Amino acid sequence: MDVDWDLFRDKLSTDEFLINTLDRYESHLMGDPKLINLLRRGIYHVSQQDEAGALTCIEAAQALLGTSAAASQLYPLYFFAAALPEAL
Hints:
Layout: H1 5-12, H2 16-30, H3 33-47, H4 51-64, H5 69-87
Helix pairs in contact: 1-5, 2-5, 3-4, 3-5, 4-5
């Protein structure tokens, strides 16, 4: 699953530190099949305009990442960077 980094940089953040941190965690976030499944389910919920379903997927992913605080905090940003191109 590809992330539209240009859209993320242009629309969601101009904070280079945040973007660099997210780049570092990408392999961790996308190396786990459970996280990929939650990302796909969340994107489906976004396409159906189901905010509660999308937030549930984000919360479930954060629970999986509980011991990695930075990755857990960045997952919602990664989710929206992936989901927004689908939703536009």
